[in-house]
Amino acid sequence: MHDELTEIDIRKMKEEIAERKARIPALREEVRRTREYGDLSENDEYRSAKREYNANNGRIRYLENMIATAVIITTDSREDEVGLFDEVDVLYPEDGGTDTVRIVTTLRNDVFTNNISKESPFGRALLGRRAGETVTVRVNDRKSYAVTVVAIRKGRDDDSLPIAGY
Question: Do 91 and 148 have their domain in common?
Fold first, then answer.
């Protein structure tokens, strides 16, 4: 499987890897220091330091794997169609509710700020659509719902969107 990412995604991941690698000596020293507290079966400081050290190294491995398997994509789309990094006003015909979402790469997905992955059911349903179109979002085999594209504001990839998990 390949992750479709932008040049900025790759650069941001490389920056995070460098920052995390710079932390390794201090984290390793903290593990060594807390190990000296004695009985490891009751040493919460040691377990916490070890957990933080392992989480840091796991994140580095995750990001390096993402880079190694990435396929670089462009953000070009037609002016009248929903594309990557565009803001989209949507209407939920079922209840009349509205929302504004931005379609982003998986790496920058954050549902709490309405940054929706292009690979999610919602993002896949919106990509390539035009204002006025009603589409069906298929969550799974039993659940789906309709949304109407009300307006599209063209966006671009920039540094303002952080990568997830950072």
Answer: yes
